[in-house]
Design a protein that fits this description.
Elements (H helix, E strand, L loop, with lengths): L2 H7 L2 H8 L4 H8 L4 E2 H7 L5 H13 L3 E6 L5 E6 L1 H5 L1 H26 L1
Length: 116
């Protein structure tokens, strides 16, 4: 099944593609609190490499979730923030977190049973 066919059968996949990945949910979460410079963001996303953070930010910027602001100062200052579109996904993340909190033990048990 091609990506196009998958997206036609499951439109939620298109939305998931915008915010999924190892780092995007965490980046969105961290930016939900404030506008941050690159290094501040990197410190608040444990384990992410500079290259991967740059890549994920570019994808989020491309999709309109994050805005990048460059200030012509010396030294140059670049800040990232969630756009209104990015902020609109936050309630979905809250509900997903609630679901996880309510079902984490069941998932752990299911995984354990599956491994046996």
């Amino acid at each position: 099944m091609s990506d196009q066919e998958l997206h036609e059968v499951c439109p939620a996949q298109q939305a998931w593609d915008v915010v999924s990945g190892k780092w995007k949910p965490c980046i969105i979460h961290v930016l939900s609190g404030s506008t941050l410079r690159f290094n501040e963001l990197r410190r608040n996303v444990p384990g992410v490499t500079q290259r991967m953070l740059t890549r994920q930010l570019r994808e989020l910027e491309r999709d309109g979730i994050v805005a990048r602001h460059h200030y012509a100062e010396i030294p140059a200052r670049v800040e990232y923030e969630l756009t209104k579109l990015g902020q609109s996904i936050l309630p979905v993340f809250v509900e997903l977190t609630k679901w996880w909190d309510a079902n984490r033990a069941k998932v752990v048990r299911a995984r354990s049973k599956f491994e046996e």
